[in-house]
Amino acid sequence: SELSDGEIDKMQRIGVKWVRIPIYWDQVESRANRYSFTAFDQAFARLSKRRIKVIGVLGYGHPIYSPSGPP
What are 20-71's pLDDT values in tens digits? Predict the structure, then answer.
């Protein structure tokens, strides 16, 4: 998830308390049964420092399990 510091600053200024972030399954599980949220850790930490909570939505299909695409 690519959020700039400017975007996070704006969220904080207008009083955002929660933000919904899509987490694409194939970014988290690059190989079957191997999970890593590293790509999201930095953004989640930056939001947390500003007391903005994250609703992470994991989904959107995965070619390993649904080769024809997301349902």
Answer: 999 988 889 988 889 999 989 999 999 999 999 999 998 887 888 877 766 5
The CA distance from 47 to 49, in Å, is 5
Angle at which helices 38-49 and 5-13 cross, to 10°: 40
Determine which helix (DSSP H) or strand (DSSP E) holds 48, and give its type and residue range: helix 38-49
Nearest to 19 by CA among 41, 43, 36, 35: 43
Rounded to whole angstroms, how far apart are CA atoms 7 and 37?
A: 21
Question: Contact 67/30 with Cβ under 8 angstroms?
Answer: no
* 69 in Cβ contact with 33 (< 8 Å): no
pLDDT at 39: 86
Q: Are 25 and 66 in contact (CB under 8 A)?
A: no
